[in-house]
Amino acid sequence: METILSGQLLFSALVTGSIYVLLGFGLNIVFGTMRLLNIAHGEIAMIGAYISFSLFDLYGVSPLISMFLAMAVTSAFGALVYRGVFRKLIADSPTLARLEGNSLLIFLGLSIILQNCTSFFFSASPRAYRYLDDIWRIGNVAITYNRLVVLVVAIGLCAAAALFLTRHIYGLAIKAYIQNPQAAMVMGINIDRIQLLSFCIGFASAGITGALLSMLEQISPFMGFSYTIAAFVVVILGGLGNLVGGMMAGFLLGVLETYGVALTSPNLQLVLIYGVFVLVLIFQPQGLTGGRRAIR
Amino acid sequence: MFAMMGFFVLLIPIPWVANDYIISLLLSLTMWIALTQSWVILSGFTGYLSLGHAVFFGIGSYVGVLIWGLVPLWVAMLFGGAVGGMFAATIGYPALRVRGPYFAMLTFGMAELVKYSVTYAEAKLGEFGRIIVSGPSVFELYFMMLGLAVVATAVTHAIASSRSGYALRAIRENEEAAETAGVPVVYYKLGAFAFSAIIPAMIGVLIVMRSTYFEPMIAFDPTVSFMIVTMAIIGGSDDAMGPFVGATFLTVLSEMLLTNAPPQLYMIFLGFLLIVFVLFAPRGLTGLIADRTKAALR
Fold first, then answer.
1. For a designed S-S bond to B41, which of A107, B83, B196, B209 qualifies (C-beta 3.0 to 4.6 A apart)?
2. Mean of pLDDT values over B236-253
3. What part of B 217-236 touches A (C-beta under 8 Å)?
4. Whole-number Cα distances in Å, B253 to A23, A200, B28, B257
């Protein structure tokens, strides 16, 4: 019981949860606006992680600086993917079901390409680097500085995302588009620009999250799958386009994972993530709030 | 159909005349044909996209390695197929209520869940990879695999032109309309799912015998799922010809062009092919050929 209530686990759950919130946010933006389910989301995070890793490894650049580069690169990649592939696909697809199926296949191809490119250039073996890993003790809680930094940055990014979606004109436009695409079009929202922006924001947030992840964990070319799944759980539980719901769901997943692993075994971490995912899809596809939007 | 069966008949005398390299190449060719055909029964006809077919393959491998030595090969194969089919029927009921991209993600997540669960169970049992000693001969495996390819092709062909085939396609085009018109959709979806699981599970049994080694991360490798999807999309996935063409095309291509290249390059190339075909030829090579012939005849 002592260990369960310890600040140590709670802090760990917070850090994991904040990563999931960010990942879920990026997936949500692309999925919510265009109904394109980006199964390469985890791979985009992987790219961000490798950008930070290589810059630190080669030139000793702090990940706190390189994460902005990771964000810029993945954002540009998002724009490229939208302009190069998805604009045509959206225009060509006769029905929403076709579009959903085809976009899934394209993202699948993309994720395979990214995984294998990385594995080709960096080899498949896991990489890691040490950055700010001194320990800070508060009472009986031991915290490494890098985790603290990740938590602070992640919370800052969440706040920025919330401000963007509630205050900025484009954030409001994205929300309007998620709620009702036809009505948004009628109101004169430039759909093409919103879609482009969603891709950039979605990819960029994955990229910067990956850069943060590289400070905490080992990275490998095939790390993306489980993060895509975690992000997807956050989107389903939190609800489409629902930032507050996503935050709740992200932290809930972080708590579930951290405490689940603490109570059982670290070898069960992925079993837990995938297990939660399967159960959520089967039993609670309408999300935490049980919203009005029926998925099936 | 005659062309495909003729091709399979030509493969019968091969083990007596060809060398080991040709035999193992044809073994993998017939494997991919059979896998892709069974994927098409579910995902091609009903549109329920499965990204997790490796799970059935892996279950077959696991069953195969567990019961090998107790029963003859053909019993092991049938038993593996039965376990795979029952697994599909069990998870199919809740899984098939979920639609579109959610179903695709669910199949993918389930495959990974089973992979990591088996890995965990094996570690708990103290098994780090199981080895098969005195497995069946390549000769035996070759004919069984060829048999499976023939059966898978025949079944897909039969379904494609039957009443069931129209029911399954009706589900793909509009499930509500199909149900309203009296198609028992749950029954058809479950049937297609179970059918499409049996042959991959049987193949899993054969392949684990061939590699004489079982390791969950290899047996449940998601790359297998990706390869199946890519072959079906490149060939076409609305009849038995599409998977046949797609599997043959990619297997031959990989042998001809990329034997010496690093495997990553081949996967990158496949990823590009998949994207290009989805964008520009969603009906695959067979669809392209059909369109060309139609245009030529006009």
1. B196
2. 91
3. 222, 226, 229-230, 233
4. 38, 36, 13, 6
A77, with CB counted inside 10 A (0-12, 13-18, 19+), is buried
State the pairing for strand pair B130-131/B213-214.
Answer: antiparallel
Query: Mind telling me how many Å the CA of A123 is from chain B's nearest CA?
Result: 10
CATH number of the domain at A97, please. Answer: 1.10.3470
CA distance A38 to chain B (A): 10
Q: How many CB pairs under 8 A join A and B?
A: 127
Rounded to two decimals, the ipTM of the complex is: 0.90
Write the DSSP string, A230-252.
HHHHHHHHH-TT-HHHHHHHHHH
Domain assignment present for residue A127? The answer is yes
Measured from the Cβ of residue B128, the count of other Cβ atoms closer than 10 Å reads: 9
> What does the pLDDT look like over A164-191, one tens digit per residue?
888 888 888 888 888 888 888 888 888 8
**Cα–Cα dist A24/A37, whole Å:** 12
B205 burial via Cβ count (<10 Å: 0-12, 13-18, 19+)? buried
Does residue B93 sit at the A interface (CB-CB below 8 Å)? no
Q: What is the per-residue pLDDT across B5-64, written as a single tens digit (0 to 9) for each?
A: 888 888 888 888 888 888 989 999 999 999 999 999 999 999 999 999 999 999 999 999
* CA-based torsion, B40, B107, A100, A42: positive or negative: negative
- Can you give the residue range of the structural domain that contains A120? 7-283
CA distances from B42 to A200, B83, B85, B221 (A): 35, 18, 13, 20
What count of other Cβ atoms lies within 10 Å of the Cβ of residue A156? 10
